[in-house]
Amino acid sequence: MIVFITGVSSGFGLETARLLAQEGHTVYGTVRREVEPLPQVHYLHVDVRDRDAVTNAVAQVIEKEGRIDVLVNNAGMGIGGPLEFATEEEIRLQMDTNFMGLVHCVDAVLPHMRRQGGGKIIALSSIGGLMGLPFQGFYSASKFAIEGYCEALRLETQQQGIKVVVLRPGDFATGFTGSRKKVADEAALQAYPLYREAIEKVEHDENGGLKPVVLAQKISRIINMQHPRNGYVVASFEQKLSVWIKRILPAKWFDRILGSYYKL
């Protein structure tokens, strides 16, 4: 299959590109910087925030391969800190990368998938797209946006033979933790004294999380499924349990549980 993956320089994207190429798929991956190339992976220098750059990259693949069978929307980033102290620039960076980047990719690929009579769109959300994570509120907002967008997209394209699948990773040990932009404003730390401890817990959990190859293997299985589910939570048992608990408990009860976990 012809697979287009965004953000293959590290983490989920890197391991997914590596695995799918090893399995014999033709893999095109986007990067924003020079990287050590993987064998049999075709690299495209693209910032997903740039609609024209995405459109041109997709056109290159179509010109060479004639089709794109799978789109894996992986590129993303995170900001951490109290919501009120996030700058306009940080908020736009968060939403433009995680959400608008996905929109740009889908808009570029979808006409080709419709013409070829089908395809799979795999979008990386997060368990943070199912619950608002304290001190990662704009990250959660970007993932909530992906959830709603993909729900609508699935319905709009189901008669076109296109499958839309949302993946919701929990804590994984990737470069995402180290690259998170964190509020360091002293006023923020004084206004929210629990922030530092909460974000340290988040990073501790991430660093002890699952290996990114686990998600890559899940993506590989989805690609080979004829009828994948609409979405999957890929996480530890405890985090899967938290998603299930949120579905059945009154909102106030779950808020107390989540707040207690972060010692808020």
Write up what this structure looks like.
By secondary structure, this protein is of the alpha/beta class. The protein contains ten helices and nine strands. The chain has helices spanning about 10-20, 50-65, 90-115, 135-155, 175-180, 185-190, 195-205, 210-225, 235-250, 250-260, and strands at about 1-5, 25-30, 40-45, 70-75, 80, 120-125, 160-170, 180, 230-235. A seven-stranded parallel β-sheet has the order 3-2-1-4-6-7-9, with helices on both faces. Strands 5-8 form a two-stranded parallel ribbon. Strand 6, helix 4 (about 135-155) and strand 7 (about 160-170) form a beta-alpha-beta unit. Helix 1 (about 10-20) packs across helix 8 (about 210-225) and helix 2 (about 50-65) runs parallel beside helix 3. The mean pLDDT is about 95.
Distance between the first and last residues' Cα: 47 Å
Q: In terms of structural class, how would the helical and strand content be classed?
A: alpha/beta
Number of DSSP strand runs? 9
Low-confidence stretches: none
Provide the gyration radius in Å. 18 Å
- Relative strand content: 15-25%
Assembly status:
single chain
Helix content: 40-55%
Overall mean confidence score, pLDDT = 93
Major sheet: arrangement of strands: 3-2-1-4-6-7-9
Largest sheet, strands/sense/barrel: 7 strands, parallel
Principal-axes shape call:
globular
Q: Which series of helices and strands comes N to C? A: EHEEHEEHEHEHEHHHEHH
User: Count of helical segments?
Assistant: 10
